[in-house]
Design brief:
This protein has 14 helices and no strands. The protein is mainly alpha-helical. Helix 2 packs antiparallel against helix 3.
């Protein structure tokens, strides 16, 4: 009976996690090809190609805090739906883009749907206090694994469709995702229009050294991810071609999922273990970069990607779970948006 009750409590979290995992996969699946795809567009330059990759994270950073503030006031579900609509519009615009300027605008629109922080806040509100860490771990794991799998699925899809049609396919999937959330997920009753964060919330959060450290860790982790997945496809394209990138990503992701599960299990045993895993993950990430200097070796790129994905997924999952323990429920949305802002 206890197991049945536990499953029923976590079911809404799992449903939200599945929906957000689909969103994350849709957003990430084209990332390995952006830097090479841009070469075929009017007005291509390496600088503009880098902007097309990076502006997604920039607009996410700009819109994170507004989404958090509005979710605390008007509810998580409404903000998630608004964010998904913007993402879908951006993906459809990317499908019709034939020049760099339009692609950059479309990527900016995709980033403006900055809803992951709101989703974290929503998942926490679905369960009681003792189950919050578990809920955060479930959502974080789903989103991280979905992002990782996208790097494996993307090259396989690239064999049967162009990058333009990958954008449209993602738009269709996200539309289904939007309808799923609209009709099957309920918002938290505790988020009302009368509830607002106390004045000085941002200042209080920034005075918390642990909170700031975790956000800096999240920022560095995501900065490394964007940097790696801008340069790595260019090197892999010379060795495996676009359609052969799965030979690197599939084994790397399988190893990363196994590593993440073991790391999270061990980290949950004590606070000290948690810190050790975070430090070890950054050390692994640093070591992985060394392998990328040998750009012409398949085995070197495989080893570097495997180590990097192990570190990236573990850090993404654990940092989110740790931030959850800081601050009050009344400004949970803003707190989580600070975390995702660091991940942009």
């Amino acid at each position: 009976m206890k197991n049945v009750k536990s499953v029923s409590v976590m079911l809404p979290v799992v449903m939200l996690s599945l929906a957000l995992a689909l969103r994350q996969m849709s957003m990430t699946i084209v990332m390995p090809f952006i830097s090479t795809y841009c070469k075929d567009l009017i007005g291509y330059t390496p600088l503009l190609a880098g902007l097309a990759v990076g502006i997604f994270g920039l607009t996410q950073a700009i819109f994170q805090i507004p989404y958090g503030v509005l979710s605390d006031k008007y509810g998580n579900k409404r903000m998630v739906l608004i964010g998904l609509v913007l993402v879908v519009v951006g993906l459809v615009l990317a499908f019709f883009s034939n020049n760099m300027a339009l692609l950059i605008v479309s990527r900016a629109l995709q980033g403006s749907g900055a809803i992951i922080g709101v989703a974290y806040s929503w998942s926490i509100g679905m369960v009681n206090e003792k189950d919050r860490t578990k809920a955060m771990s479930i959502l974080g794991a789903f989103i991280s694994v979905a992002a990782a799998l996208a790097f494996a699925v993307g090259p396989l899809l690239r064999e049967i469709m162009s990058v333009r049609w990958m954008f449209m396919t993602c738009a269709i999937l996200l539309t289904l995702n939007l309808l799923y959330i609209l009709f099957f997920l309920k918002d938290n009753k505790q988020h009302t229009k009368t509830q607002a964060a106390p004045k000085g919330t941002f200042r209080l959060l920034l005075q918390n050294k642990t909170f700031v450290t975790l956000n800096l860790a999240a920022f560095l982790n995501n900065f490394l991810m964007v940097s790696v997945f801008y340069a790595l496809p260019l090197d892999l394209n010379k060795i495996t071609g676009e359609t052969g990138m799965w030979k690197i990503f599939v084994p790397a992701i399988i190893a990363a999922i196994i590593f993440m599960k073991a790391a999270v299990t061990w980290a949950e045993k004590s606070i000290n273990n948690n810190y050790y895993v975070l430090i070890a993950s950054f050390m692994i990430s640093a070591v992985s970069i060394i392998f990328y200097f040998n750009k012409t070796s398949f085995l070197s790129l495989l080893a570097g990607t495997t180590l990097f994905m192990c570190a990236y997924i573990s850090l993404t999952t654990l940092v989110a779970a740790n931030v959850n323990s800081i601050a009050e429920d009344s400004y949970r949305g803003q707190r989580m948006e600070f975390l995702i802002l660091s991940n942009s």
